[in-house]
Design goal:
four-stranded antiparallel sheet, globular, 1 helix, three-stranded antiparallel sheet, about 90 residues
Length: about 90
């Protein structure tokens, strides 16, 4: 990842494990959980973060699609993690 304003660059391995489940049959809602993976949380997500998080422990995120929009909800974040936006900040 590179901060285009400063040129600061970092490399991270996101090749962790994840399980994808569909807890609400017949819907497009799913939950991705596991360790060593990353997620971008935007203004309309819950909680509103505008951050990229990389989990080094356990993370679970509910992903819901409706009307062409995708919303993510952080359900769990346990153990060490990194906020890439903070790491790349000037």
């Amino acid at each position: 990842m590179t901060n285009k304003d400063t040129g600061k660059t970092i490399r991270r391995d996101l090749s962790g494990t994840g399980s994808l489940s569909y807890p609400d049959p017949g819907t497009t809602t799913r939950v991705l959980s596991g360790g060593d993976w990353g997620v971008g949380l935007h203004t309309d997500d819950r909680p509103a973060h505008n951050k990229w998080l990389v989990s080094r422990g356990y993370m679970a995120v509910r992903i819901t699609e409706s009307g062409g929009e995708t919303q993510r909800e952080l359900l769990a974040l346990e153990g060490p993690y990194e906020d890439l936006c903070k790491t790349l900040a000037p």
